[in-house]
Design goal:
30% of the residues are buried. α1 crosses α7, α2 crosses α3 and α4 packs across α7. By secondary structure, this protein is an all-alpha fold. 74% of the residues lie in helices and 0% in strands. It folds into 2 domains: 74 residues, Tetracycline Repressor, domain 2; 144 residues, Tetracycline Repressor, domain 2, CATH 1.10.357. This is TetR family transcriptional regulator. Pfam families: TetR_C_6, TetR_N. Keywords: DNA-binding, Repressor, Transcription, Transcription regulation.
């Protein structure tokens, strides 16, 4: 058997492996959407997912790596994309403002509010995210730490850029630091999300709208 004969077999095995991993991941998302992200063993999760412990270990290595993979896969879009889609679909044209579908005026707090609305449709994944953050802070879970740290950095960059754009248009106060404003919006959204998990009466959306008002220039 020559190299040309071996290559198709290798590609076929790889493709099957990718498909099998995705199949397991899809089932794991369903499980975590129901159960949340409470700490448990990889063996127990394998039983819930319906695969062997060896299979789960082969494709994901550790419980933290599985949790990160599940959350990454479950993220439908970035805050920018979510805000753009929701604004285009739902927001009417404001009097003397941008036409419907214009995304430049969507504030960082509004972007996080839209994401929060989507997240609350699947409370288990909100719990999973909270579990990942707790594991990252713990310091003994490198996969969770790398994921959460990278996510926060990406969100701060994206939201800070949006703040700069809004400052240039006069929609956000010019005397605040964009990076700090971005960090504040993320902290507020995540903290409100945690409060909502503990007490569903907490109005996450109204609180973020209040933050928008605080960041707006005086009229």
């Amino acid at each position: 058997m020559g190299p040309d004969d071996q290559a198709p077999r290798t590609r076929g095995a790889y493709a099957k492996g990718v498909a099998r991993r995705q199949e397991i991941l899809d089932r794991a998302i369903e499980v975590f959407a129901q159960r949340g992200g409470s700490r448990t063993s990889l063996r127990a999760i394998a039983q819930e997912v319906g695969v062997t412990h060896a299979a789960l270990t082969h494709y994901f290595g550790s419980l933290d790596e599985l949790l990160v993979a599940v959350y990454r896969e479950s993220e439908q879009s970035s805050p920018d994309d979510a805000a753009d889609e929701a604004y285009t679909a739902e927001a009417p044209a404001a009097p003397n403002g941008p036409p419907s579908g214009a995304t430049e005026s969507v504030s960082p707090a509004e972007m996080m509010r839209i994401s929060a609305v989507e997240n609350r449709e699947i409370p288990g994944l909100v719990q999973l995210y909270s579990s990942l953050v707790a594991s990252a802070v713990d310091g003994s879970h490198p996969s969770a730490h790398a994921f959460v740290t990278s996510r926060f950095a990406r969100l701060r960059d994206e939201l800070a850029e949006r703040v700069r754009d809004l400052q240039a248009s006069g929609a956000v106060r010019s005397d605040i630091d964009p990076g700090l404003a971005a960090a504040l919006v993320i902290a507020a959204s995540d903290g409100l999300q945690t409060q909502w998990l503990l007490d569903p009466s907490v109005d996450h959306e109204a609180a973020l709208r209040l933050l928008d008002g605080l960041l707006a220039p005086p009229r």
